[in-house]
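User: Need the bound-state model for flavin-adenine dinucleotide:
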Amino acid sequence: MRDQAGVVIIGAGIVGCSAAYHLAMLGWTDVVVLEQGPLFRTGGSTSHAPGLMFQLNASRAVTRLARASAALYAALAADGEPAFSPVGSVEVATTPARLEEIRRKAGYAASWGLDAALISPRAAADLVPLLPADRLLGALHVPSDGVARAVGAAEALARRAEERGVAFHAHTPVIGVEVVGGRVRAVETPEGRVACDAVLLCAGIWGPRIGRMAGVPVPLSPVQHQYVRTAPLPALAGERREIAHPILRHQDRSLYFRQHGARYGIGSYRHEPLLVSVDDIPRHGHGHGERPEMPSVLPFTPEDFAPALDDAAALLPALRGVALDDAINGLFSFTPDGHALLGEAVAVRGFWVAEAIWVTHAGGAGQAIAEWMVEGAPSLDLREMDLNRFHPHAQAAPYVALRAAQQYREVYDIIHPHQSIEQPRNLRLSPFHRRLENLGAVFAESAGWERPRSFDANRPAAGDEERGRTGWAARHWSPASAVEHRAARERVALFDLTPFTKLEVSGAGAFAYLQHMAANDLNRPTGAVIYTPLLDERGGVVCDLTVTRLAAERFLVVTGGVSGPHDGAWLRYHAPVDGSVSIVDVTSALCCAGLWGPRARDVLRRVADADVSNAAFPYFTARPLTIAHTPALAVRVSYAGELGWELYAPMEYGLALWDALWAAGQPDGIAAAGTDALDSLRLEKGYRLAGVDLDTEHDPFAAGLGFAVRLGKGEFMGRAALLRVKERGPTRRLCAMTLAAPDAVVVGKEPVFAPTARGAALGYVTSASYGYTVRRGIAYAYLPVACAAPGTAVEIEYFGRRYGATVATEPLYDPWGTRPKG
Ligand code: FAD
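Assistant: Bound-state model below.
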């Protein structure tokens, strides 16, 4: 075995083989793949995966990875046959709620460009011969879904990688990872050490164990999952084809099915989650019972499967009373949020991870991670899967176990995008929490924080005009948010902004470094506040921040609570390593109250120890203030589009700060306001939300952030790419649309069409809400420039119904921006 390699890939399951193939295709052939078991049927999860591929996902990026995987496997041969059989899929609805859900999913499919159709019970029964039409209300048909031969695909990918020079070594477990000075240097095996520049972890359920060797948390839990194969079914007697029926999902009962010749395979998420500690997975060659070569297979527990069998037979009567030929509890990985783990550990350079990936996504995920390693960034925005997206509490074992179990339970559930997790709750409480509770806050969990969505204290009296919302958009919504919105527009509202991520960037090189990272010009005096996007080398928007210059070489950088770890990792990753810049997360040191509304100055004046007039304290500046007894940093910015301040104070003064502002606001009718009101306020102003309206697949000009880019300031990250974009001209632009029907509201991800057009969608909705001041449903979408002119008519499809909408001039409210500047 070689003692040196550019990249060592750990694990030769479908993910490791896919990554090896794609690295080789991109010209990186100095790659060694180490596998603890034999090659291809390694004993890992891939070895027993039945290979069903349902490509459609609520996440566009995940759907894209699945589509890339299907295309890749279809082009590979395994045992003389394509490694992918596009038999299509049928997802049945047996309840009205599921019927609504598949309508919504058909919308996702149109948004993501995947061909899918709602079909009648009869049509579903015609596609899947075992399915009686009278059990169904309807179904979703995705013709390009199908079945992958997972081991065959892995082997075919590995052979192609080998042809290009990649070396595969079986029976070579990695037993140590050498990290020196925050960089990977080598891996240890019983055969010796392999020095390397990079490690790519593709060890599936064993991933956390190897992560520990390098000091990198790999937050996933192995979970048992039941899959059985029936004895031959009389109904399929004589069937010679291995797979001809579409794959089938019965999500109301957490079941899926595929044909195996005359047998049927049944997979079940119906049982209570059965988690396994990564340290309890048997060693290779020491698997259970007759399967010593299958350490990822545990003994079947029939009692857990019994309800699933009943439900399976209730849907497919041909399965009634049938014996099981083969049944396993197989292990695979679940993460706290159900998404994969992709990327390089920011704390250990050269330690790359591609974990918690299904066969369905492994082809595309291998391509994405290879692109990322070779080219510095993947072409898809993968922030949902970013390895560095977790807060510290979310990487710890108790959280991972709790959330992984819940992800398993909910894998086929109907989840509302605004539905909050139930557990764990009350992890991070702002110092205002008691006051928020007293006002009847309806809390949602966000990055561990309890954030008020709205306040029951603000619920309008019965009969109020804003009470009407119906259906999906009415769930997890309160008419109180309309009242809170109006309080901010007409009087003054107080928001808890404590969950913002706050980073203090300082040191002799702080300005030069941030100036290089930011697209806007930070060369402003102390006390200036600058809004800026950060770009990647391709000119895509990584995130947007506000930067407050506290001193020549000291800055307060503020970003979102959820996106904080991702944005912070981006900043840390690119910071100089010579000690000239320090980045300290001060989130837990500082609370923050947002005081916004036309009377915000009147309120602040009553409790501040300094002049807060426009002349003394202009827009986009910051200064220290004492507010009653609280030392604070007041930053005059507004995500609501009204006059006001973000008021940062040491955490322990929080309650005093809130109480002082609350008391001072009484003459002006101050109201507490939640995140729903803020979302509506910011959409009327056209303020973008990172990760939703902004992503690395769009440049700041397309995103409408050209006003915050200073190409003339000198070199900065992404500038060269932006110059090319400028020359080429934009192809898409983020547009505001208003819905024609006065009470129509959409929630996000819906497809946008040209009027009456049946073909491909023009784009999909990024952010959406209702604008209580403009009295219209508002939606944003990237549209082709030809359709981006204000006045252009479009249609937004929501639960199968088309709603008329019009591209509007931005922003919808206060176009001259006079209100926050007053
Ligand atoms: P693995 O295939 O487990 O590969 C990891 C490899 O790393 C293993 O070969 C292991 O031996 C090796 N390794 C570990 N530690 C070391 C070490 N220290 N040194 C060297 N090598 C090491 N997905 C679908 O998309 N469709 C399905 O229908 C489907 N059905 C499933 C049914 C069941 C019952 C189960 C359990 C899973 C199913 N999955 C399915 C999920 C899918 O099987 C996995 O997500 C996927 O196979 C994971 O691939 P991987 O390459 O990451 O992991």
